[in-house]
Structure prediction request, 245 residues.
Amino acid sequence: MLARILSMSLIAVLALGNALAHEPGYEYIIPRATVPPTIDGRLDEPLWKLFDPVEVKLVNTGGDVGDEYISDAWAAYDDRNIYVAFLNREPSPKKITTAAPGHDQDVWKDDENELFIEPANTGARPYYHIMINAENVTQDSHTGAEEDAWEPALESATSIGTDNWILEVKIPFSDLETDAAPVGESWGWNFNRHIMSGTDIWTGWSETGASFHTPERFGDLTFGTMAFAVQPTGKLATSWAAIRR
Prediction:
């Protein structure tokens, strides 16, 4: 009997270790959107206004970025796509750098947002990587494919305001290893930002250390089972999201 108990305990410990493959404490549970957002670089839909974002503020070399550079990030999904939005606080919009000459060309050197997406959630390669700068120039890669082999059919839009810049993105599930919404599943995930306006700072939601390319320290993005709906009157019917840290 004791041997059986010890065996069951070991199995439980191993299962827990697998569940915590990513950086512990960083989990974002996202809602199903009954009405998809319009990808226009504006955050005027109830979807982005009525449930809480996560904060992108952890500097990769340690500590937090100043409040004036914190980004809020959201995600939601429907049957076919995942939707992402960033609100990047920016005290000096005129200093924003957008020098990338075109798609897949050094977008990482600009003021830009990044997404790291690991559907298998094992804390290891392969994973998807998307970068989009403040002028909506994109760069994408897949660590398990040849260079330039992965070209997702994403839709994105940006806008630059007086004290922020905004990014909205729609990514088809068909470009992320699944043809159906992974309801109830958790993916390895990170929201990131590169700040070039008068400085050179790299920030993230989940703490990865010096390199963003550290999949074992991505956070967990969970596809929630509750829906987010707005009635014809514009009133919120149901909204749900949960955040740790």
Summary: Confidence is low (pLDDT under 50) at residues 1-20, 231-245.
